[in-house]
Amino acid sequence: MKSPKELSLEKKILDELPTSGPARIVAEALMNDDEVQQMQEYANTVSIVRLGYNDHGPVHMRTVTRNAARTLNILHEAGVKTSLEAENMGTFEDSVCAVVLASFLHDLGMSMGRQDHELFSMTLAKPIIERALDRAYPDSLEKRVIVRSVALEGIIGHMASRRIHSIEAGLILIADGCDMEKGRARIPLVLNTEPKAGDIHKYSANSIESVKITAGEARPVRISVEMSSDVGFFQIEEVLLPKVNMSPAKPYVELYAGIQGDLKKYL
Question: Where are the domains of the chain?
């Protein structure tokens, strides 16, 4: 059974999408897929209980989807074309479909472990992507092939470990990096009390109070991070900034961060 948080995030995702059409069909197919739900939940068990990492499950993947859809809409409103649009290979809604698929499924590979999980995620996601696209584009093999390719690029590229080239895939990097509010580290902090190498990631994430994605001023998209202590800068420098720097969408993003009550720094 889905948690209230998951249901709330699903509503926020749908609010970012057209009320009908391929993107809506894809999103609802994913949200109503029992196998996807079970895969996400087990990925989270492996991540938190076995490995001691932060949330990589249903809430995280929905949060990333909401972040990616919101960022894509802001770019669209600012007149920035997606790669599919610029290359005359698809519409804006085709790009939305690819972004939703990639973000909703990007961490399925955590069910097998951390190392190379983006590769395993791509393998596990492929049949799910194909059955969702069969519903969204029943009469167009071309659309199914193109959207599937962009979605898989977004999944395999989300760790900033290999070069990607589309705006759509680049948004998965940024949306993933933006999910670092303290709630994501709450369960690992409770379950794992013995100090060990890597704990700085949990403690730095626990200091992040909020991450907001809005329209920017100097650039179309603004990411604004508020933290309770400056240990949160570790999370930004080690997780978010590398992903922004590797993203083809980097030229369209401005990043501000600071401790609550203080002037935010432009990074």
Answer: 4-266
